[in-house]
Amino acid sequence: MPASDASTSGKPRLTRKPLHMIVACSENRVIGRAGTLPWRIKEDLHYLFEMVKGGVVIEGRRVFDELKRPYPGTRTIVLSRDPARTFDGCDKAGDLDIALRMADAIDGFDTIWIGGGQRLYEEALPLIDRLFLTLVHTEVSDGDTFFPEWRKRFTKVVSSRRSTNGKLDYTFLVLEPE
Hints:
8-stranded mixed β-sheet; alpha/beta; Dihydrofolate Reductase, subunit A; globular
């Protein structure tokens, strides 16, 4: 999507670069359980790394703590209000607005990606141009971290591909607002 003065939400755009979000969630919107993903889907992890390569990834501190490193082939900005905390190989911002401005100013990276967790997804979802969603076709009854409701806003399916790892079925969706 070309940069414009307003995002599809009607709010003023904070970036010139496209702003995308990437997530894997269950049918009941679970993205986490006890501080980790409720599944291990190798194909989805490869998809994640391939999609964000060449972009700037903005993620929360807990997501960084789980991965323990920046995404390969990206610039990563970690959100943290702790002035003493550092993140090896990453930039740090105190809030989303600052992170978006930082990401937009970084030369050589064409897209800004929102990479989670829950609070960042909730704050950024109204701002994004495109949602890259791996919908895992299962219900996670003991999940404790959730992706916000997206279905009413992101109704245009740009692409859809079903897959399985033998234990779980899932669909790689690329969605945009109408």
